[in-house]
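seq as requested:
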Amino acid sequence: MITKTERIKKDITTIARFQSKKGRGCNRFSYTPAFRQAADYIAEEMKKAGLTVRENAVGAILGTLQGEQPELAPVVSGSHLDSVPEGGNFDGIAGICAALEAARAFHDAGIRPRRSFCCIAIPEEEGPQFGSGLFGSRAMCGQLYDDEIHRFRNAQGKSIAEVLTAYGKNPEKIASEMIHKGDWAAFLELHIEQGPVLDREHLELGIVEAIVGLKYYFVTIKGISNHAGATPMTMRADTVLAMANAVSAGADTALTLGDGTVFTTGIIQTHPGAGNIIPDKTVFSIDCRSRNMNSIETVMKAVKASLETSKKQNSGLSYTIEERLHADPVEMDQSLQSLLETQTQLLHIPYKRMCSGAGHDTMVFNHLMPTAMIFVPSRDGRSHVPEEWTDYKYIQQGAEVLYQTLRHLTAQ
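struct tokens:
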């Protein structure tokens, strides 16, 4: 094989040192000093591999190996550079380092492809800072919500536009730098599976056929604060009880559907936040995913019905639901899947075709170009936790499949 395990390991372990805060696991948040350190490291390694490097208005790092016919649309590969709070060292980074290693393989072999190849490191895929996901890729593809960069704010009250400006970027240039259909020939992303399938089936690579759709919401319930002991249960406008009933309704409905639909509430905020005061305000998140968008709508109908019931039973209650992210299910390009499969078979790597239960930047780019994904195993199916682990052998094998596929695509 042409790609080198030791170089991939060095990249991943080096980037893992860049942390936005001390604590368990990986904490590398977009547009922080640690994120800048990681971006600078990637940019420097791209230059060493002979790539021409630039940074766009949203903070993505792009390194290009110019082809013999630079007027042709490039083939692009990479992943996201940010992490969730207390996450792992492989999520996103494995894909960036695999694409970087493919660039090194081109460089080592002295190959100048017919069509340019671009390696990309994308910011703000995870989304916990601003209560939304896939921001970097959506901004690049013109898929932001109206006024999103000014409305969505982090825990410090800073808008996306303010954070970008402090990072040295000009948010006003995002629109002029958007990519359009035909600008890129294809996008390929290597990623850890983040689930248990490959590990449990003792397989070393997955070829993604489809990515589930997802919707992300913030629900705000307002009620009336009062004394926790002196207010009878029948005379309360308790926002937490309304939330609990709504969450239970959503989770129960997802389970009953039996089609793989999943429902998660990972953020809960109450006001005033005292143990002996009935909360007058509760804000919580809903993350719902499915291959069938109708199933997501069914779940949300159950949530809304529960909230309406609580509202009717407690005259002091009201609620709002704000959609923060909408991504439809997408199918990967059939010809790219076949090409990945051919290269995997030539390398005698045990594999399977599979669906992705997690969202990825690929699903955003899918609307503008052919896309494909390579999965490598997650030990015990763990991800978004400090225990996240993927053997470097599997990442290198995936990088080799990626490189051989890129050689074919950039020769066209």
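Residues 293-313 form the longest helix (21 residues).
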